[in-house]
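Researcher: Let's run the pair from yesterday's discussion. Sequence first, then tokens, for each.
Model: Starting with the first of the pair.
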Amino acid sequence: MTGSLPDGLDLTTIANAIKTAKGQYEAYCRDNKNHVAIWRSDFSSLWDYEQHLFDTYPEMLQSCGCFPNQSALLDVAVWKLSTNANFTLLLSNTDATVRCRSRDAFGALKDYESPDPALRILSDNPDGLNGIGPAAATALLTVYNPDRFTVMDKNVLSTLANYGVRDLPKKASVTDYERYLEICRRLVEVTHVTSLRQLDRCLWYLGSNIE
């Protein structure tokens, strides 16, 4: 079901900004590697790495119903990694834990309409995955099914706040993700981007340039 847009959102201005940002995200990612070098030095750019993720993982994860091992989890989590400390915590997850938690999370997506239970299973808590915060958890869901989910992080939230959205937090939050997802799905419709993935790229790039 498509949600409504916040009353304060400056739709005309954000639509124009998204249109302008469409090609800029790819150019930025082709010129940068950033934290991906921690894990995958065989990729020449962040753009190539992202293409690898979405060419490889959605079909594989939906087929097997889980991340098969720690290495696969790291492949995706490092895409949204912010500090070396997170990387160290990620390495503490065993293959068995990765399989169990991700299978439970993906199973919850079939049992519940809301993504909230799946995010809580994945997030860093006593029963979750070490090193996976709310932003990384939304990235795991996005790579599992990019047609249904999108990433919630500080850059995209900063963009929405900059264009008048006041009912979302400054950082990714499990409790606010469903509302965020509703806004993004509606923005895909009204700004005429091709997908949630393209919208995420535009919002992320715009947010990366907000001081």
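Model: Moving on to the second of the pair.
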Amino acid sequence: MHSRWPSGWAGHWACCGWRRAIHPKRRRVDAGLVTLGGCLLGARFIYVLLHWHYFSSHRLETIQFWRGGLSLAGAIVGGVAALLVIAGLRQVSPLKLADALAPMIPPLAVSAWLGCWQTGCAYGALTPYGAWWGVPTGDESGLVALRFPLQLVGAFSLLAYFWWLEKIVSLRRDSGQMGSLAGVGLSLNLLLTSPLRADPAPDWYGLRLDDWAAAVLCIISLASAITAFLSQRLRKGASEGAEPPTDL
């Protein structure tokens, strides 16, 4: 029975290749799943690395990510690394691939914020007694108290940004503009909400590791956005310069 595995896998990959040839949009789904896998692996790897004093004696728990323990910084690093690897293997522009994957950022990021509200992470500071803006929010110990609704602010601000990006801003598809601006919005969302967080987190030189990762993502996304918009302007100028002069 084990001897049938090679031929079975060969048939499977041949079938998948044939389906991708007929349905090119499946490539986006595959790229999205691989990117999500990179986010998950990176998030778990960094968390385990930061808590190695515990996992060194509980090795089997390192792969039990469903029990909790993910790092936002690791998710960002893993996602960007997966995107670059996919772009290299498929020989496509990382900016073009980022455009294709940009639509999955809003639901994932908003779900992450709301998930933090339910599980007691990335919460805001305690509000004064009787403050109307206080929302019942739990912390990592399970204690529920009235806190500034940071998770809701983060979720709804992201929704507003991506609505503005989709409905108001005119972007050229497959140019890298949407993907780079999505990265800018996500990183700024993380950076601007970070000072309002009251949950404990590992830091480096006085800043959360999440802040460092978000800052790097912001720099990469801004540079990518500048490159995408300048490339479009240069192409537009070249096409206009190539038009023959008209007789007056």
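Researcher: Give me one sentence on the second I can quote.
Model: The first strand starts at residue 135 and ends at 138.
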